[in-house]
Amino acid sequence: MSTLKVNTITNVSGSSIPNPISLSSTLVALLTGVTWSSGLINTTQTLGSISSYTTPKTKLVRVSIHYMHSGSTNHGYLTGWVFQTGKTYNIDGTYIANSHYDWYYNIFQTEVLIPWDPNGTQSISMYVVDALNTSSSNVYSMYYTGRIDQ
Amino acid sequence: MNYLKPIHSALIAIVNDEPEHFFFKGEPSYENLIWTSKTLKKPTEDEIAKKIQELEIERERTEYQRQRKPEYPSIGDQLDALFHAGVFPSEMAEQIQAVKDKYPKTP
Q1: Interface confidence (ipTM) of the complex
Q2: Burial A39-62 (b: 16+ CB within 10 A, else e)
Q3: Which of A132, B10, B79, B89 is the most exposed place for a label (fewest CB within 10 A)?
Q4: Do A70 and B4 touch (CB under 8 A)?
Q5: Residue A8 confidence (pLDDT)
């Protein structure tokens, strides 16, 4: 794990000093081998707890959605909202959309930031808007990749 | 190309490449395996180990195919050689020759 501090403001006479922002990066697997399909549309799925990684100052959490298409000519769709468990997905969450129909081998990765309440549940969920998978070799994986504290 | 962990590949083979029977909570391992299938029984750790071994034997048996593939001439070059050797059926050879005549080589 690495930590980089940026935006540290030196004292200016007569003005308030914002708290410095701290960025941290890591790679923690939440779920792997995900092949959710249409039976999970309009459901909320828990991606995992990150209580070991957040702090009372965490304001944003980074989540990476990784897709590997390896199942030849078929489908691997996953669209929905990633959000802090217990919050309202379409207000406090971040929308992601993935629709892959392919023939070859591909890896595709999307990273999102989701607003974080340090006093809320220290867990990440996903509300599934669309899912279709027609091969066990077309897999999604979800990783916690860091946080922004202030 | 396959970047899947051996346990993942073995499970895909066990479920006959039908999605939605399982996923992992965290990195792929038997301890992290979440079995969601309503129709298939969760395999034991021994059954998965046996399947991993079977896949490895099969991978070794077919290794020569992966070694040969990138070194073969392209399919197009192979077909062109057959055309020039005069072994195509006359109808196919005539069609190919007609295209060659339509777009002659730049001198």
Answers
A1: 0.80
A2: ebeeeebebbebeebbeeebbbbb
A3: B89
A4: yes
A5: 54
Give per-residue pLDDT as tens, A53-94: 999 999 999 999 999 998 888 999 999 999 999 999 999 999
* Prediction pTM value: 0.81
Q: Is some CB atom of chain B closer than 8 A to the CB atom of A105?
A: yes
Contact flag B24-A134 (C-beta cutoff 8 Å): no
Name every chain A residue with its beta carbon within 8 A of the beta carbon of B12: 136-137
Q: Please judge whether B19 and A37 are an interchain contact, meaning their C-beta atoms are less than 8 angstroms apart.
A: yes
- How many domains is chain B built from? 2
Same domain membership, residue B30 and residue B11: yes
Kindly state whether residues B96 and B54 are assigned to the same domain: no
Range of the domain at B30: 6-69
Q: What is the pLDDT of residues A14-47, one digit of tens each?
A: 567 788 999 999 999 999 999 999 999 999 999 9
Rounded to whole angstroms, the Cα distance separating A54 from A132 reads 32
Residue B44 placed within a domain: yes
Residue B1 lies in a domain: no
